[in-house]
Amino acid sequence: MKLESVEVGIQNSHLRGAAEIHAHAAKAVAPIPHKITLLSDERKFKIHFVVAGLIPVNIAIALPTTFNYGLGLTGSADATAGADLDVNLGNHYMKYTKGSGFSVVSDKPTLTVTPKFAWDVEAEADLSLGLESTVAISIDKVISYNLNLAPSMPVKVDLENKDTQVCASGTADFVLSHEADVHFTLFGKNHDIFHYGPKQLYHYHKDDAFKKCLTLRKLNSTIVV
Prior knowledge:
The protein is mainly beta. It has strands spanning about 5-25, 35-40, 45-50, 55-60, 65-75, 75-95, 100-105, 110-120, 125-140, 145-160, 165-185, 190-215, 220-225.
């Protein structure tokens, strides 16, 4: 018995998330990077079935995700910063066929980021928000497929026009890559067949992704861009 063909991927998928950071500082604070594990690679959704009453098939799906952030302030402040994130991934398939190797079908994803800010004093801030996430699909003893997502959004909050306005501006960046490995095992015999990638599928970058200014009239104001 030989492995002739196997296909794995995702269909009509979105990655959505929201995060907020609250910082209180009595003086200027330099940006310090932080990383939080939202989902570990140990949390998996598993499917088990048997083909032809003989060959067991075990499928595991995981979504290991970490959130990276840093917030620096130029003066004393009590500030909240965050963002809503929506990545429309679309369809991504990878098929291995004996004799011809891997073939790939990938849609062009779209990235929507909605930053949010609130402040209690007139201070400036530098905010970095980043997400590292992998859609990891494994068909035990046959093939593994990883779709890697890395959106990031550096944001700067400045006082402008003689400190009468606060302006939020930011950059959007999103990198999508994938890789696969065929490692067929049957009746205790291992066959390392083929490895693909990692290969970058898509890279979106825009320096002036957004900028919006509001007049400072009172404290406890909020910007939603």
